Amino acid sequence: MNPQLLQLICFYLFGFIAVVAALAVITLKNTVHAVLSLVLTFFSAACLWMLADAEFLALALIVVYVGAVMVLFLFVVMMLDIDQEKMREGFVKFLPVGLIVAAAMLVEMLGLIGVKAMHAQVMGADPAAMAGVSNTAWLGQALYTKYLLPFEVAALILTVGVVAAVALTLRQRVDATRHESASEQVRVNPRDRVRLVKMDAVRPAQPMPVPPQEPSS
Amino acid sequence: MVDQLINHLVWPIVYILCITIPLILAVAMFVYWERKVIGWMHVRMGPNKIGPLGLLQAFADVVKLLIKEVILPTTANRFLYYLAPMLTLVPALAAWAVIPFSGKMVLSNANAGVLYLLAMTSMGVYGIILAGWASNSRYALLGAMRSAAQVISYELAMGLCLVCVLVLAGSLNLTDIVNAQAGHKGLLDWFWLPLLPVFVIYFISGVAETNRAPFDVAEGESEIVAGFHVEYSGSAFAIFFLAEYANMILVSFLSAILFMGGWLSPFPSSWGFIGHAGFPWLLIKAFLFSFLFLWFRASFPRYRYDQIMRLGWKVFIPIAIVWVLVAGCLKYFGWVTIGTGV
Question: What single string gives the DSSP state of each residue in B201-267?
Fold first, then answer.
């Protein structure tokens, strides 16, 4: 069994799992199961990338999407109380729209593949392998030298997104609930809260001697 | 054909067993040690009846858990309920693949080892969330939500701490990271010194990420009974237990490898025998870190939930971000010697 054959088998295995899981995302009735299938799809895609020696992208996909984004997604889906029957009601009504969107996407993808095929060597040789360094090291050097400006711009846009999200959700609710400021609580002086009293040890009071009971006559 | 099968299948499995079986035994002894230490700190004896000094207590507990019935709550989601413990255990064990035990002893000397670790530890949260959701119990769901929010928050601080280490070491490979801490001064060459605040943050985040005291609101007994695994019994519960302790030992090993020089000796190399690097040093360091987990548990009262979030987001992450810049300056201006300093 030569390595190429093994790699091919692994490729088809991961690809098959990815496709099946992706189908499961849109067919499963239970929404939590659907989200988990999406996680499996991401994971299989990461495995495929790993096969293609793109280990940084593969692991970043797992860390970012599987480890953070999908967890939050799962949260939201778990908290929703979805009526399954109602969700399926408009199927026929929305079918034409869905078909149009699907057809448009198919045409676009075919066009892209066609254009790529015309430029025979769009996918050049692996630059990391040519430079003789690991994929991660090459990616880091490319990002921080050749593509530094786009990289920083992307980072800036993401930061703006974070600030916007915080600004949208941050509101002082003075009237609604009892609110305690954490920073105020941290700054409190223990002496204002607890008073330690030093007392001399004293012998506990002796119990009163019980007078001997008169035998009842 | 047979040769290749043995080379590519049998030997890796043997190596994996060489790591996991001692790990599982270490978990058993760690549980015993925890009960002993906490007992001593509470002025009690701890387990002392089963076996000499109570050493077999952990094994007795395992047997007890394994022969107990696994109860499935009536309205639980059967498939996910049984899947959740596996989803917790598998990443906890898989993460050990890239841990280097000494200069040559490592199962997979992956180039992106640190990223792989981050990926595996971030997967563990699924087991917790699904366990909480699939049990169809309010306590379990509350525990799962708390736990997941906490793990995600502290993962960010942890990731930024790792960035500092990566900047100094210039590699994602754990073996390279330890080698970058080598030097003639022993202890003073390790990364804990230039990255002191980050080192502290990393370990505390590790404690929070494994949901251990004082950050164990996920299973705060006084509020939500046992959190996400309240409905689990028998072997399913044992798997959660195993995963939690394996993760604690993993964080201990990682703190030792990333900041305390891994298998390097704390003494200068000119000191003869004790100046040599070797596996026992890593073991001693990891043991000290794992002891800290127990010490914390017996010393500190539990944090309130909003204060945990505040600590992670408003204290740790800003400090870690600033220290990324500091680490960059240390590296750029050559204030820290990387490697043996030649």
Answer: HHHHHHHHHTT-TTSGGGG-HHHHTTGGGTT--HHHHHHHHHHHHHHHHHHHHHHHHHHS-TTS-SS
Interface confidence, given as ipTM, is 0.79
End-to-end CA distance of chain A: 108
In chain B, the residue whose alpha carbon lies closest to the alpha carbon of A182 is B307
How would you write the pLDDT of chain B (342 residues) with one tens digit per residue?
A: 677 777 777 888 888 888 889 998 999 889 999 999 999 998 888 888 888 888 888 888 888 888 888 888 887 778 888 888 988 899 999 999 888 888 777 878 777 888 888 888 888 888 888 888 888 888 888 888 888 888 888 888 888 999 999 888 888 888 888 888 887 777 778 888 888 899 999 999 999 888 887 888 777 777 777 778 888 888 888 898 889 899 999 999 999 998 888 888 888 777 777 777 778 888 899 999 999 999 998 888 888 887 888 888 888 999 999 999 998 888 888 777 777 644
Q: Are B111 and A74 an interchain contact pair (Cβ–Cβ within 8 Å)? A: no
Q: Is B51 left (phi over 0), alpha (psi -120 to 50) or beta?
A: left
CA distance B38 to B299: 9
Contact: A68, B152; criterion CB under 8 Å = yes
> What Å distances lie between residue A93 and A26, A97, A98, CA to CA?
17, 8, 10
Q: In this structure, are residues B173 and B221 in contact, taking their beta carbons and an 8 Å threshold?
A: no
Q: What is the pTM of this model?
A: 0.83
Question: How far apart, in whole angstroms, are the C-alpha atoms of residue B116 and residue B93?
Answer: 13
Identify the sign of the CA torsion B251, B252, B253, B256: positive
The amino acid at B38 = I
> Best interface-test mutation with A: which of B83, B129, B303 has the largest number of A CBs within 10 A?
B129
A26 to chain B, minimum CA–CA distance in Å?
A: 19
Q: How many helices (H) and strands (E) does chain A have?
A: 11, 0
User: Helix A70-79 and helix B113-134: axis angle, to 10°?
Assistant: 10
Name, in order, each residue with C-beta under 8 angstroms of B38's C-beta and a sequence gap of 6 or more: B46, B294, B297, B298
